[in-house]
Give the backbone structure.
Amino acid sequence: MLELTGVSKTYDGTQVLQPIDLHVQRGRTTVLIGPSGCGKSTLIRVMMGLIWPNSGTVRFEGTEVTPANALLLRRRMGYVIQDGGLFPHLTARGNVSLMAGYLGWSPEKVETRLDELAALTQFPREGLDRYPVQLSGGQRQRVALMRALMLDPDVLLLDEPLGALDPMIRSELQADLRKIFQTLGKTVVMVTHDMGEAGFFGDTIVLLRDGQIVQQGTLKELVQSPATPFVRQFINAQRSPLESLRGDSA
Amino acid sequence: MLELTGVSKTYDGTQVLQPIDLHVQRGRTTVLIGPSGCGKSTLIRVMMGLIWPNSGTVRFEGTEVTPANALLLRRRMGYVIQDGGLFPHLTARGNVSLMAGYLGWSPEKVETRLDELAALTQFPREGLDRYPVQLSGGQRQRVALMRALMLDPDVLLLDEPLGALDPMIRSELQADLRKIFQTLGKTVVMVTHDMGEAGFFGDTIVLLRDGQIVQQGTLKELVQSPATPFVRQFINAQRSPLESLRGDSA
Amino acid sequence: MRAPQILPALMAAAWAVLLPSAGFAQQASAEREITFGSKIFTESVILGEMAVHLAQSAGARTRHRSELGGTQVLWSALLRGDIDVYPEYTGTLSQEILAGSGVSGEQAIRQALAERGIRMSQIIGFNNTYVIGMKEEVAERLGIRTISDLRRHPDLKFGFNNEFMDRGDGWPMLRARYNLPHQDVRGLNHDLAYRGLEDGSIHAMDLYSTDAEIQYYNLRTLEDDLGVFSTYHAVLLYRDDLNERAPEVVAALLQMEGLISEAEMVAMNSRAKLDGVDERVVSADFLVAKQIIEDPQVEVEGAMARLLRNTRAHLFLVSISLMAAILIAVPLGILAAKRARLGQVILGIAGVIQTIPSLALLVLMIPLLGLGEPPAIMAVFLYSLLPIIRNTYTGLHDIPTGIRESAAALGLPSGATLRLVDLPMASRAILAGIKISAVINVGTATLGALIGAGGYGQPILTGIRRDDIGLILEGAVPAAVLALVVQGLFDLVERVLVPKGLRLKR
Amino acid sequence: MRAPQILPALMAAAWAVLLPSAGFAQQASAEREITFGSKIFTESVILGEMAVHLAQSAGARTRHRSELGGTQVLWSALLRGDIDVYPEYTGTLSQEILAGSGVSGEQAIRQALAERGIRMSQIIGFNNTYVIGMKEEVAERLGIRTISDLRRHPDLKFGFNNEFMDRGDGWPMLRARYNLPHQDVRGLNHDLAYRGLEDGSIHAMDLYSTDAEIQYYNLRTLEDDLGVFSTYHAVLLYRDDLNERAPEVVAALLQMEGLISEAEMVAMNSRAKLDGVDERVVSADFLVAKQIIEDPQVEVEGAMARLLRNTRAHLFLVSISLMAAILIAVPLGILAAKRARLGQVILGIAGVIQTIPSLALLVLMIPLLGLGEPPAIMAVFLYSLLPIIRNTYTGLHDIPTGIRESAAALGLPSGATLRLVDLPMASRAILAGIKISAVINVGTATLGALIGAGGYGQPILTGIRRDDIGLILEGAVPAAVLALVVQGLFDLVERVLVPKGLRLKR
Ligand SMILES: Nc1ncnc2c1ncn2[C@@H]1O[C@H](COP(=O)(O)OP(=O)(O)OP(=O)(O)O)[C@@H](O)[C@H]1O
Ligand SMILES: Nc1ncnc2c1ncn2[C@@H]1O[C@H](COP(=O)(O)OP(=O)(O)OP(=O)(O)O)[C@@H](O)[C@H]1O
Ligand SMILES: [Mg+2]
Ligand SMILES: [Mg+2]
């Protein structure tokens, strides 16, 4: 679906992405993990055609992404920006339905879809008419997710889409989203820092470090045959939920 | 240290905080957990004197927080805003050292402190001269954390301070921070959605739901004698890091 | 009558600059109606209105361009056929209009006029020239009837207008010819002189012989027994061709010949100027009393009505030009923000326009757009561009990168991004620009009166000419109020247009 | 010489409005020097400079207020003692200054002047009146020497200035008195008429007898054999008291009596006007050639120097008023943003100020601040306030809530928040306001010339008066350029002041 060849990116002389080859398979979920600042978000922006690589090409269904066709391709992708990126001048409803309104959806259709999404993300109905500053962090994140899902795009690029959610909503949403992705055959690229989440979603997991792919494969592969010690270290760094209790009791 | 009595808050007619009594003990770390939108950030804002409760009082070391003294009290607290809240017009360095500069710290002292904090948070040195839009999400979060720690305040109010960090940096930072909090006797209020983190830091864990305290105590108490079924459900909702693997292999 | 010289010069000048090049463009388009003119002082307006009544009584369709800028303006308008008739004074004809051609005496004047295709009526009656006035009681007591009589009372104190003190045909000549011995002669403005007469601190002052105040203060005007003051007999001037076009109207107009005595003119001036009765009513009443016409049932325009009319005219100028400015400047600002190079050009041009002095801009407009509202609107419009362009440009530039990226990520095309994201985000800045422009607009539109577009500038300029603070305020105060109202209005618009999400405080 | 009437009226008016109330305040403070005046056309300036040279040769300290607004201005300044000497024309004295007092003949004029404390020299020599000019060759070929000779050539084509066509003492009189049969007479402006003479499309045109162009185009001026044009002999007018104060200077000045012939005046005008030689040089060279004075080594101000001087004056006005505006308006904008109620008042007042017409504001300033730079700066300053205040206010309001909260959370006091957070965040909007103000400022400052503050307005007004597009452009173009430069300058300032973090695109 998405084919990156030799993509590199430099900011002010520092190489943020080394030349990267990556194939995002249709209908599968690819999870990007890696240390903070390793280039995950940059990679996603390149895939969206929001920034342009210094070298290399991105192909979407075989056609090269160019400034000329990026606009139309982007409409076939949903993107959850890392910080939400909500429009402050629009309510939650306005943010989510902006594009649908532009495409001329009927109000009923918009409402129905909004209902579905609010139910999916357990977003409180009364929050729909609040502006971003009036929402909690987790609520804002769910609005961003709803906005990305609104048009039911084939491709979803999700940059830490659930990071600000409480464990309960998060785990339910994880389950629901995975079901959706699988049954509807979505192509998904997701960034997360939660190994549980990465394992839960990831058909393929790509571990980046300093703008380079260190290893890619299933979680199992990464755990069982880490390419470098760093892979093992990274995968195992996360504290388990009730670990301290075990430590306590130990 | 911080004593909340009957604090409630209403926005546009909806009760965001029910009357709450809470005692934040000096030198201890209190962790706030609860579903998204339950009022955790609101409670922290009330403690900071950034918003004023509709009823009830907040006392800081016995003196009631009022608009008149809030300014001075705030300088004794460090606050990591949920979304970072960095000033876009200042570099990372500028953001972190703004207050120190205002208080007339010598450049050397500022530089030394910056070095310490950058080392602590594993923040890349070259990133110090970047502006917020030029930083990755996790880097921004660390800048916000450095800013809160800069003046070495007695009280720290941390609203999901590590949510956007990768597991490796996160776990190292957790360890370092806990050491600092304990050895220097900081009074900390922290919001997190990660149960591992809550258990790791929390001397006391406060579970909020719909603006009310459902239960408070150590993690052990919450796990072993949950006040309601919801408490158990909430505590156990989070997926373990390598859980899916276990499921896979099961 | 020598019209007051100093203050009106400005307006006269403006008119003089503007009129010759433009003419009254509208004239041509209107069906053949008879256009009257009058100068910008009460007596002239009364005479003009009187002529209008008479023409109407003869069935003519009329139009009165009253309160035009000065002798030169009326005279050249008459020559060009922009007006057909206006009241003039013989003294002005020989001393000013025909000055230098050395004509003197009625016959010579008539001939000189005829050569230019202009006819002159017989004199209307009164002579509006300099006179010396005293309180009736004082003059009676001292037995003073003529200026020569003053010689017998060398202790009398005189208070003269500075202009009269200085002018060759004023006090210096009077003193010389009559050999007046008086020592206590001071320069005073007219208002103070009247008061001086009342409280006895002066005994005589200079006046025009038909001044309204003669009646009000009950003054005796001393006979100019040596005849040193030139005569300023009122006459009607009209175009030769009017005789063919509308002989019956000319006949009706000529009923004014010999009709008005000095006392009657004083009474009419007094009614109009001091009692504030509309000139149309004053002149109609006079004609009715003389049984020349039947009561034409004039509708009077009160101060309120005038205010309303000026307000309407001003609002017209402001609203059209502001609307146009918004419609043009916002897109230009957008363009400037989108295309850096072009943006510099647009902002540069808008800036350069702003440096053109307003009067010059108005003058520049005339050849293109004629007189009246169109050039005024155009000029005001041009001045309104820069703040809106600049603030639109700046507002768009100030949108945070994150918001821009969000919009791009949605795949919104740039037009829709502009409409749905950029403009709402920049709305506060754009509105600030519009508010600045609106206020500048209200201010600049007062200049419209200089080229016949009406509005609050009208009373201001008339007031400056008449040295009438009240009248100046009648324009200046509503203009100021309008500026406040416009700002308030846009504050309300801001509540609607600036999205609530951008106005929220936590 | 009748100075061109229409265009200069504006400036004359402005001066007339301003002068009487203010006088030249500086005069009193300077030690007793002798002040000369001249009108705002070349010949008058040459004569004035010549008088200055003569006075200096007699050891006087002098000051030349050249290019004043018009006859009325000079005359009243002379009467008030603001100037001591100026060149005038006999025709202007009788037809304009002393008009109405019926004086005619030199003796009468002398007496009328004496009554006002003014003396008149003998005539300087030349007579600057209307003449009819033809190409020398054509006139020679047809044997035409006098105006009467024209009658013998009824087919000649005439091209007259519109003013000459219309004026009582122009073509109508000429035709009547000389009984001229010519049919092909058109209204043309002078430039076209000269060209017409050159290419033969017309044969005669009207001129003033000392016009520079007579020499340039090699024209023959036809003798007014019936003497229909009034005489305009140049004379010096000076105050009576000068005889006592500086008899030797008067004696020196009177050397001008009978000194200059028509041809000599034409030559001097031509040198000054067409060759662009400074009037001081022209007059000095003349006196040196006549062996009346020794070469005074005049330093000439070239076009560049003049541009520089105007630029300096304009920059002075603009920079001081803009600086003051920034210093006052930014704090006012901050205040407005912090205190909602007070903010409405501040914005309201700033708006109301903007509605005061600029000329009125300048006039209002005079009683408080006198003539010259201070009132000009004040007025320009006042006009610059609104855009800065409004944009500061808006910029501060536009800061996102999150940023505000961050600042509050740090515990920064409000002053520091303003300095470290609010103002940098609002800097782009504030600078946009300053840019708007700066441009308005550059434009409004051109009005400063009306009250003697100099700057680019000087050549613009002089140019309007002289109908000299070149001169107008000498002010208008640099003003426009300055507007661009100022905008460019603030674009640079923006690079420094607007934090890089706010300008970054991803
Ligand atoms: N200014 C406001 N106006 C109206 N409602 C508000 C406002 N601010 C917050 N709320 C509402 O108050 C509730 C509590 O918000 P708060 O930010 O405290 O939640 P939270 O516990 O921090 O959630 P999260 O975990 O998602 O950050 C939410 O439902 C939110 O929508
Ligand atoms: N506009 C920019 N200019 C300069 N450097 C930039 C810019 N944008 C990003 N960077 C740098 O590029 C690197 C990669 O950034 P990116 O946002 O892709 O990281 P990430 O993997 O998403 O990190 P995180 O997990 O913290 O979100 C970081 O070191 C960041 O500082
Ligand atoms: Mg990222
Ligand atoms: Mg929160």
Notes: Strands of chain C lie at 34-39, 62-68, 85-89, 118-120, 130-135, 158-160, 185-187, 204-208, 219-222, 234-239. Chain C touches chain B at residues 400-402, 506 (CB under 8 Å). The radius of gyration of chain C is 29 Å.
